[in-house]
Design the sequence.
């Protein structure tokens, strides 16, 4: 039992905005009060108390990030080193941290829950093995669906009912938590070297199925299955000049359904070509503000080295051709693909400067902090351990303006960031880093400090240098255990994995089995991830509405 | 230069109409490759099966794989890099010296025909083996073939895959990457992972006689490594975990017999395309699994006092 006393508590989910309040912990959960001689006290007087951070969109485990690790030994060489100790395992930080380092880095920054945003079913077993080696944080996975050919074939034939059963079966087979759509139809087309850029145009190899059909049907299926997290959508035309029109059309297709728009920064560009790329964050934010069925994460970029990893294969081929750098591509049979290109965002490059501004503009122009979340689409826009730099830019308008003025003049003309005066409050930061993403993920025990919540608590020194404050919390508690104290990992606990079991008609297996024999190279029985292989599985059974 | 443009084997089965094997003899070394993944299966988009596919074999000698191929190209030993570089030049429309091309054992006309076929393929794939990666040129040969395939994607869909074998070598590579960042050749002697092939790779460490003990798991280096490396293994305390008596177990100080993984021990094996497959044991074994032996050794090692600092610390970058 533990009591945190005297801290200023920011718990936006419970309407607490900086009140001095005690937090009581017992048995790994927050409770109303603890009494007795066995109660340990943490004196947080003068400090700031947050619920543990929740990352709604990150790439930390599985075949894609592991491919990226293999491709970038030069980055590991200069990365932060993690030294083997009686408490911690060895590892490397950098752009693509090793699994153990990932756990230490997230916890060291006060984050206690992460959502791995792109998992192919075929290699989900690999993802879970890496997640098991990612300590401290709790985890969940979104399963890639929008280019699954079995599913697209069903949509082509108009078999929506069966498509719903297949989605449910696939989520459970992967031991996933949500459904991810990446460049709907475009990755399937990429298997023939093509892309899907127009929402209303049939996907390569299909007559009826268009990206718009895939998006609308998947969003409806996810809602129908009662998945706690809405469709997690990476729109078509990522990164392309002028793509804001595609994004607006996509949001219109989604009317009437919940959806989470991933890394919105990469989808809010105007202009005709690279030479005229501009920000259309205002138009995206205007539409978004008026449509409460949507949530989004920023996918902000920061200047410096990164590795871009996405299931969006055609985009990565283009990026390889643009940069002439290394290119990794991995097409996954019948399901998806992935592309990897190391990238350096440069402050003096007009395109990169506009991208940098767009991420911040979206965070500042979208009014409701409950619907826009802090991410960098790690490792695409920047590494997750650089989030505190973005917090600083959001909380201090003078500092931000100073940085904006260093951008190339052309970038300033094509962005509105210089005119924005909004400053985030601590309550709003707690919302976009914890309470909001927890709610969007549908995790009722995360992102708040009310009784019944998991005792994931981050305690910061109230440092006027907000970057320093959020980079190094004074204490981090995970499930009631003090795991970090002044930057040192004190104790390593194992995280849980959140999994959903949607309901489906068992006969769907009779439909899928012969298709597997024809199209797959693994047997049907070896395809699903076995529950027995998972440690710390937290399974939620769902009923159809 | 760098990276890899690849796919899982099912993509080849369902789509590939142009298949090249380079520097390998799959008929003997991967006997199920043709029938399960590449040549004979009727794929979703290759309904004719074998008739819908063209297979090219590139090797320095005739092997039993030749009779499975439609086109056999015999390269002079050690000239693979020159052939690959010529193909890259032809792809980009650069001039090449016909006489120097002929030194590779293949004429310019043959290579022009090959590159045209590659460009016209709907979905092309190159499988490359140790005949390419372990002969003259070594990793530069790999870089050349990886680059050729990446560049072909400006014309059509093309992928490649190293044809790996030796049990679960891919699995070891995958796990090393997620736990240390590097696939092999890792030293943890400073408490954090460092990577330097040629310095920390196994044969180099053994030949330099740098290590004073060895733990060998799932491998038989006594049968395959150079003699100086084997001599060193025989001269130090070498511990072998293996279900069977092997060349290495014979020279080892300690041989712990373990259960056979996949038959009486569960686990995961990663296929050459890095797809993990579950191993489901069908028999019980009186012997412990590799995992159990390692865990028990680790527990004993943990009882020894730590020689590294007790508290976690990140070493700042250089």
Sequence:
């Amino acid at each position: 039992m533990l009591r945190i006393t005297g801290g200023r508590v920011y718990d936006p989910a419970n309407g607490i905005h900086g009140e001095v309040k005690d937090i009581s912990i017992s048995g790994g959960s927050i409770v109303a009060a603890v009494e007795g001689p066995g109660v340990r006290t943490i004196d947080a007087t003068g400090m700031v108390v947050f619920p543990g951070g929740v990352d709604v969109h990150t790439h930390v485990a599985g075949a894609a990030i592991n491919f990226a690790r293999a491709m970038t030994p030069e980055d590991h060489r200069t990365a932060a080193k993690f030294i083997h100790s009686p408490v911690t395992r060895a590892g490397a930080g950098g752009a693509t941290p090793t699994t153990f380092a990932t756990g230490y880095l997230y916890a060291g920054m006060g984050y206690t829950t992460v959502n791995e945003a792109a998992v192919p079913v075929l290699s989900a077993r690999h993802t879970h093995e890496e997640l098991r080696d990612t300590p401290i944080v709790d985890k969940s996975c979104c399963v890639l669906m929008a280019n699954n050919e079995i599913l697209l074939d069903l949509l082509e034939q108009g078999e929506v009912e069966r498509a719903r059963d297949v989605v449910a079966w696939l989520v459970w087979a992967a031991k996933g938590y949500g459904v991810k759509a990446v460049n709907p139809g475009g990755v399937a087309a990429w298997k023939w070297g093509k892309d899907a850029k127009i929402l209303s145009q049939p996907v390569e190899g299909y007559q009826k199925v268009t990206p718009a059909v895939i998006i609308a049907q998947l969003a409806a299926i996810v809602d129908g299955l009662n998945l706690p997290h809405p469709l997690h959508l990476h729109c078509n035309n990522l990164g392309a000049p002028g793509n804001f029109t595609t994004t607006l059309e996509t949001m219109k297709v989604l009317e009437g359904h919940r959806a989470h728009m991933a890394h919105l920064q990469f989808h809010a560009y105007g202009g005709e070509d690279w030479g005229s790329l501009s920000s259309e964050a205002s138009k995206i934010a205007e539409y978004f503000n008026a449509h409460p069925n949507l949530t989004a994460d920023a996918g902000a970029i920061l200047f410096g080295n990164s590795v871009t990893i996405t299931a969006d294969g055609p985009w990565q081929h283009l990026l390889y051709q643009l940069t002439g750098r290394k290119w990794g591509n991995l097409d996954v049979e019948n399901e998806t693909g992935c592309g990897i290109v190391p990238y350096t965002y440069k402050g003096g490059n007009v395109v990169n400067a506009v991208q940098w501004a767009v991420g911040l503009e979206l965070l500042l122009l979208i009014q409701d902090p409950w619907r826009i979340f802090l991410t960098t689409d790690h490792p695409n826009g920047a590494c997750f351990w650089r989030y505190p730099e973005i917090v600083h830019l959001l909380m201090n308008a003078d500092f931000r303006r100073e940085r904006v003025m260093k951008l190339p003049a052309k970038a300033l003309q094509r962005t509105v960031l210089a005119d924005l005066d909004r400053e985030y409050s601590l309550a709003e930061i707690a919302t976009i880093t914890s309470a909001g993403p927890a709610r969007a993920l549908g995790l009722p025990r995360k992102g708040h400090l009310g009784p019944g919540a998991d005792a994931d608590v981050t305690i910061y020194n109230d440092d006027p240098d907000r970057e320093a404050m959020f980079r190094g919390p004074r204490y981090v508690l995970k499930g009631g255990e003090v795991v970090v104290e002044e930057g040192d990992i004190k104790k390593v606990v194992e995280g849980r994995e959140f999994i959903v079991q949607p309901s489906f008609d068992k006969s769907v297996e009779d439909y899928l089995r012969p298709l597997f024999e024809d199209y797959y190279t693994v047997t049907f029985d070896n395809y699903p991830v076995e529950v027995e292989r998972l440690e710390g599985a937290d399974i939620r059974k769902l009923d159809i509405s | 230069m760098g990276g890899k443009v690849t796919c899982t084997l099912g993509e080849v089965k369902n789509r590939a109409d142009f298949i090249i094997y380079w520097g390998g003899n799959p008929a003997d070394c991967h006997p199920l490759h043709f029938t399960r993944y590449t040549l004979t299966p009727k794929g979703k988009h290759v309904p004719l099966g074998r008739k819908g596919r063209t297979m090219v074999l590139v090797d320095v000698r005739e092997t039993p794989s030749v009779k499975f191929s439609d086109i056999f190209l015999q390269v002079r030993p050690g000239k693979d890099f020159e052939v690959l570089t010529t193909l890259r030049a032809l792809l980009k429309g650069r001039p090449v010296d016909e006489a120097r091309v002929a030194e590779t054992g293949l004429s310019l006309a043959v290579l022009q025909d090959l590159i045209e076929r590659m460009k016209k393929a709907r979905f092309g794939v190159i499988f490359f083996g140790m005949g390419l990666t372990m002969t003259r040129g070594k990793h530069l040969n790999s870089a050349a073939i990886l680059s050729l395939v990446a560049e072909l994607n400006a014309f059509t869909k093309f992928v490649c895959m190293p044809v790996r074998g030796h049990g679960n070598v891919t699995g070891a590579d995958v796990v090393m990457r997620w736990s240390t960042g590097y696939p092999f050749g890792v030293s943890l002697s400073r408490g954090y992972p460092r990577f330097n092939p040629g310095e920390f790779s196994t044969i180099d460490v053994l030949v330099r006689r740098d290590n004073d003990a060895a733990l060998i798991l799932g491998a038989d280096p006594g049968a395959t490594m150079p003699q100086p490396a084997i001599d060193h293994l025989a001269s130090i305390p070498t511990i072998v975990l293996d279900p069977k008596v092997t060349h290495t177990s014979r020279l080892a100080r300690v041989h712990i017999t373990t259960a056979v993984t996949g038959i009486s021990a569960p686990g995961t094996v990663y296929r050459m395309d890095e797809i993990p497959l579950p191993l489901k044991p069908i028999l019980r074994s009186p012997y412990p699994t590799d995992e159990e032996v390692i865990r028990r050794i680790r527990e004993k090692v943990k009882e020894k006092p730590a020689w590294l600092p007790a508290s976690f610390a990140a070493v700042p970058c250089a």
Q: What stands out?
A: The mean pLDDT of chain A is 96. DSSP finds 18 helices and 28 strands in chain A. The CA atoms of residues 51 and 448 of chain A lie 5 Å apart. Chain A touches chain B through 70 residues (CB under 8 Å).
